[in-house]
Write a structure and sequence with these properties.
With 373 residues, the chain is mostly helical. The chain is built from 16 helices and two strands.
Amino acid sequence: MKSSIPQMVWAGVAIIVLALIHVAFPTFGHVPLFHAYALGFVHHGTWPREYPYLAAVEFALPLALPLSYNAAWLLLEALGWFGVAYVLYLEGANLWLWGGAILLAGIEPAFGLAEAYPVLLVAIAFYLQSRGKIAGSGLALAAAAAIRLYPLLLLPIWLAGLRTWRERVRLAGWSLIPFVGGWIIAYLRHPGGVFSAVFWELGRPAEFESSPAAVSYLLHLLGVPMRFAMGYGSTLVLSPESAIVTLLFEVTAVGLLAYLIWQVYRGHLDIPRASVVALAGILALHKSMTPEYVLWLLPFAALVGEDTGLWLLLGALTALVFPFVRIATAPGGRPIPVAPLEMDVVVARDLVLGLLPLVALWRWRSGSRAKKA
């Protein structure tokens, strides 16, 4: 399907409403964190630090323009998402799907500006690669990975989709050399802290919004012991089976990624569908899950342009988690244990998230059989 002017208008309305919702909650999420980074009050020993580039821009904009703090925040976030919408428009994506889903899934104010720019850079990287601009695509992907690491999951799929090994080497070089170079510089500056975030992630138990935690919760309803705990900056689910479930899910995620790379390499699967299946499948199987991750999937979902109802349902269920997480528990912090109704919503959301890549693969397989017939 081709994008149209009404679709772009709808996406613009969704972006403006979303930005206004976010700027109405200036004490939530990363807004004060950005400000603290920009002023130099907060320092991390690891690299990449949490959005320092955006922090600097966010702090400098009100100084350069006659804008208030909230107005600058609103402008930056809206510009980022408008950029994503415009790239998707150029690619002929389904902006009805993207606008509705982002308005629902992105309603939590912690995840506006922080996610707009890595998503924009990934969209630009895809746009450039689809037009044979390998160097620009690689640099955009490297810049996105400097803010969020998830774009690196897309790199092997995109490499498999290129026609020649020369193109693959160029994309890998333009993507990885700047990224690895940044890590080397960070290591020279702070040898002990660079890889601590990696070991921190490997050691953490399942987060309560993740699918492994949802499985532990369902087993708990059948009588298996389970408890909630605070740690690693989030709410965790601990049970005798959680480690095994998490390991099985992670192995499945690796197998899924390998399968998709092989199908793209053979020319059987297009890059947008493989990208959305990879991201949705890995997020559905990973032990860490928070609402902003859903925003990463939506550009590729719009490029594929199918299953609008399921994507909107995913966004709606993600939005339902927000009152529990950010409003019902503020300002005294999260109660332990987590409310059963909240876990019910999380289980439903994770079920839809896991269903979406399966449906996308089923549609692809059905289409392949129809072409052969």
